[in-house]
Amino acid sequence: MSPAAETLVADLKRANVLASVSSLLSWDEQVHLPPASAARRGEQSALLAELHHAAATAPRIGDSLALLEAAGASAPADEQVLRRHARKDYDRLTKLPAEFVREKARLDSEAYHAWAEARAAKDFPKFAPFLQRQLDLAKREAELLGLPDGYDYALDKHDPGMTAARIEALFTELKRDLVPLARRIAGNRQPTKRDALRGFPVEAQREFLRAVTTALGFDYSRGRIDVSLHPFCSGDGHDIRMTTRFDADNPLDSLFSAIHETGHGLYEQGLPREWIGTPLGEAVGMGIHESQSRLWENQVARSTAFWQHWEPKFRAAFAPRLDGVSFDELLRTVNEVAPTLIRVDADEVTYNLHIVLRFELERRLFRGDLAVADVPAAWNALSQELLGLTPAHDGEGCLQDIHWSGGAFGYFPSYCLGNMIAAQLWYTVLAALPGLEADFAAGRYGRLLGWLRTQIHERGRRLETEELVRAVTGEGISPRHLVRYLGERYGG
Amino acid sequence: MSPAAETLVADLKRANVLASVSSLLSWDEQVHLPPASAARRGEQSALLAELHHAAATAPRIGDSLALLEAAGASAPADEQVLRRHARKDYDRLTKLPAEFVREKARLDSEAYHAWAEARAAKDFPKFAPFLQRQLDLAKREAELLGLPDGYDYALDKHDPGMTAARIEALFTELKRDLVPLARRIAGNRQPTKRDALRGFPVEAQREFLRAVTTALGFDYSRGRIDVSLHPFCSGDGHDIRMTTRFDADNPLDSLFSAIHETGHGLYEQGLPREWIGTPLGEAVGMGIHESQSRLWENQVARSTAFWQHWEPKFRAAFAPRLDGVSFDELLRTVNEVAPTLIRVDADEVTYNLHIVLRFELERRLFRGDLAVADVPAAWNALSQELLGLTPAHDGEGCLQDIHWSGGAFGYFPSYCLGNMIAAQLWYTVLAALPGLEADFAAGRYGRLLGWLRTQIHERGRRLETEELVRAVTGEGISPRHLVRYLGERYGG
Description:
The structure is a homodimer. By secondary structure, chain A is mainly alpha-helical. Chain A has 20 helices and 3 strands. The first copy, chain A, is globular, with a radius of gyration of 23 Å.
């Protein structure tokens, strides 16, 4: 590496160490923090954020970037990857005036509380002015960076290279096929045994999910799993902190949450360790990240082959609670599909329609085709069109998600991109590794993980979202694999 | 407060926020860190230490100090307290050359590993050169700060105002009375029921110690207790992180460890919260800190009155395991006394003799009256004289403690000072609050805690160690209260 690249790497890694401490503070806040200690944690996190900002905007990073840019296309490929992403991040951090950053931080806090109150009161107009201000700020942020389109910028933040036009094309095709498919699947529903899965001791759940996630390949010597209200995966390949949650009357929730987070954790653990903190050792974006969690959670862990191995162990671990439940009934319960108004409760079929809805509204809001005041009506109409359900009030409609209160536009589409990419990777790996499902029936996941390591993880951010999909699968992102997969699994 | 004092407070608090993050990293390292993540934690801690050093040595702190010093004795008392301690800390951080600091950090790491190997090999000569270097550096550190005596400086670091001459006087008197007392107590030993305390479920131990420590007054809305190999108490009044450890066959260990750490935690929680991070909201020193943990652990929780309240609950929580153990037998087990070679396993009587031994050796090492090579022989002779036991090898003798490997000279005496001060406070509070032990028999500790709050906690660092003892008890530190207490409790 050139001296400039080496200096850049050292400076990025230094900033990343501070980011990793912030991440640990946040993990601790959600897992352990005593209730009255929140104000102190706020002080600690704010100071760490300030120091991280100072490290990530150090003038020497700008100098290194200028040197690398002068070298241009003659630089080694990896240096160009470093340069391209580091420039993007550096500009985002240095081109926004301090007054803008302060205004955004203030608004995030105010809007969060306004949203929480509005949701509790089922009263969208209380939240509307804050949504309007977040929308205005998001557009101004793009302008300040000299970018022509606010929504394209928001999407690119989460999934490098994606645009509103591209996602619109993908989602239009997906919607065309998925709405009727979801209706057919819902029409074919057979009863599940969810009500029989009650009284599963938490300690045994913990041991079982630990056995499963260890078998999937998670390295517990560099990570752990704890409990929080909402499951998440934080940290990096040096030290992954995942969470799940336990409900004695819903053992599948803790297990599938843990498997989902393990998918994220395996990606992080597979990124080149020596490059952690730099674009060569970071995830491509949220869509690819979500493709990893979804592939393990859905394609792998909801499959018949997976349960051929684990069902006897599950039955034994919780005996005699499954005595009245057959293998087929358990599998049907694992794969229950039922439309719901609430995104986070949705099954893997209708989940995508929740995302399509949110994307369409965000797209129209940014274009100016939809006024903030009209969001509830638009939401409810789309909900009826896509899901066949109309919210009784905004609390189960347009106020259900936290994202917009923080101005996190362009975030939702990643979930659905992740589902599409997971299915696309799935058919690719099935073709590449014959007999893969027989591995699962034997409780072995090493070939799958090895393939994901080589094809996805070890590449870091060398390719952008859709470039990576094309490199691995031979074509750009396409919704047809997801539609095919859902049809095959749920018999639509 | 003057503008200079306000600026100083803000700067000290800022540095303290970074120290509190370092402390949380260290807590997490001992409680949660995955084994292979240690190197990363090292990077995180090193960077935080660097940033803390930068914050604590900010030139503006020096400027504020100069302004306050110019105001001299005309400044308000609290400003003088701030100034005095902040100056001491600032000089320690700024007057040591960077090369010295680096050399010390390198030596700490090398000496730790040399000590661990030497201890495992029971081979003192392997460790001797590192002990010599630590001793040399400790003396040089005092010289660099312009202080005349290396050991006085080391003692003052842990207990402000204490000197080797003062501790020698205290320990000489203590030794005179305690050695024969310990012999008499050992001669009167009655059999305990320790062997009957087996198979106590950890979950029930956890609940029981939580009930006890809550009753003592620990505020779990600003703190928590977890598990680590060695119990400790970290954090501050904003967020205390204590630990204990569980052994199904030793339920008294987890309980008394938790009560000991609760004593530390109660002190921290009682320091004026608005001044945390400044000398007005910090503990006086280690001796006073230890007096708080010891008072709760020993004077309170080993008393008959304490167990009159808790014994029935203890019996019920673990029924039927105590069916063959009477109240008196349980109390005798709680108060078991038996000389041992290992300090950390010692009872509250002989523990003090372990400290006297270490102090005498440190004193002679610093004076030049003892060569490092002669430490094992001197250790063994003193061990026989004080404890009546001679180590079979250095692993259970002069290599047993980690402290010297890190150059932490002057640290051991604080433990014994804490025991002396605890007993002295005990007789003072018994006189001040008639019927106090009846409170304990009823499970009430509010009057005791309130008295400690007013007399000790709320004063922060306004007084030095012995000044504070004098202010509260009407006399300087005296060993006779400890000797009296041990005689009364153990019937010597």
